Amino acid sequence: MKSELTGLDGSVSRNPSTGELIKSYPFQTPDEVENTLASNAQAARVWRATPMAERVNCYRRLAATLRDRSEALALLATSEMGKTIASARAEVEKCASAVEWFAEHGPAILADEPVEPIASDGEDRIYVSYLPIGTVLAVMPWNFPFWQVMRAAGPIMLSGNGFVLKHAPNVMGCAYGLVQAYEASGFPKHLITVLHTTNDVVGRAIEDPRIAAVTVTGSLRAGAAVASTAGKVAKRSLLELGGADPFIVLSDANIDKAVEIGIVARFQNAGQVCLAAKRFILERPIADEFTEKFVAAAKKIKAGDPLDASTTIGPIARGDLRDGVHDQVVRSIASGAKLLLGGKNVEGPGYFYEPTVLGDVTPGMAAFDEEVFGPVAAISVAEDLEDAIRLANTSDFGLSGNLWTTDVAKAAEIARRLETGGVFVNGYTASNPRIPVGGVKNSGYGRELSHFGLREFVNAQGVWIKKVS
């Protein structure tokens, strides 16, 4: 099958800053696909029987390995997907820190859990064991080529499962670099392995009995296709899909701080973040002030060479993705949105797009209804709090949301009314091992990270042992 990205029987990595070819990666042959699944299944059997203490030791070594290889891995991410080198280094460190968190807290979360006895139980022993289910196939995106994988693999593998990685085809260097870090840290060879092939072969792999479950981070279309295949063979799935996260600013908010954080929340990683502010919903009394200051701050964003320390944002990861973002901007303006800043491709090599701000955005426009995966902020005005909540919930997505107000008691009440998987008050959305990540509505189902993620792909086995008299 021809790759949509390259027209070849494989994929390529291109430097999005220049458009230059980095490396070609042929798709695996049928024999190589079979070897990938077979070798992983064998490694998973070994890992399942490995005591938790030894798994933890592997995790602690992995954290050290990631830090030792931080610069090389960061350069891989910058060259393949275009994030700034500072952001890439921070991503590797985030992975290392998360691995340490799983090593410290995971064993207690996955330990046998006693069931509180009642009088009629006598001396019976009742508990729940959290056991591995086998190998999980992970279909991962390119925007955080290490963190998205680690967010899934960390909990999945600590609980005793194998991990087959179907990574985005434009970041295959990152995929292999991460696998090498695992193997250098003492994990069984092939316990985490790469599946590089076509979508139809991935579908057949999901149906393979050696795959116990599947997790996807990506678009609604990709997630629905994978979930449909998994559902037909009664296999568990987790979907973390797109988002059109609201960033609500109420009249009593600290406007200067909201603007400062809003710029980061929207434009970090060139706007290529699922859990990112995309729709700025402003109460009318402060709408003009916020908008004026936000546009002024966005004008200071410096797009350029991601290896230059002074660069704020790098390019969009691929040319076709940049074309899609521009199309959304054009359609929004045609529907009545006001162009306040940007709105064009940056001339020259690479896939750069101007930091863009759209005003007067309303439901029915592309910038409001769709996920815009690029450096584009959409500003909408709400008449009051109730209207702000209505606008926030007027979306097919429900991944995360931000709320700005100095009334923290009111914020807790408002958070419960927002139809999102997470709410961050007076800050921007951040994924952290201590709290779950996931969405509702078209943003998917299931949770990664925290104790929810550690128990997402396990067999919660109830055990009731009666004393023999």
The proportion of residues forming helix, as a percent range, comes to 40-55%
Return Rg in Å: 23 Å
The tally of beta strands, per DSSP, is 20
- Helix/strand-derived category reads alpha/beta
Q: Count of helices?
A: 15
- Beta-strand proportion: 15-25%
Question: What does this protein look like?
Answer:
The chain is α/β, with parallel strands linked by helices and 469 residues long. The protein folds into two domains: 253 residues, 3-Layer(aba) Sandwich (Aldehyde Dehydrogenase, Chain A, domain 1); 188 residues, Aldehyde Dehydrogenase, Chain A, domain 2. Helices cover 41% and strands 20% of the residues. It contains 15 helices and 20 strands. The protein has a seven-stranded mixed β-sheet, with helices on both faces. Helix 2 crosses helix 6, helix 3 packs across helix 4 and helix 4 runs parallel beside helix 5. The N terminus is likely disordered.
What characteristics describe this protein?
disordered N terminus; alpha/beta; 469 residues; Aldehyde Dehydrogenase, Chain A, domain 2; Aldehyde Dehydrogenase, Chain A, domain 1; single chain; six-stranded mixed β-sheet; 2 domains; seven-stranded mixed β-sheet
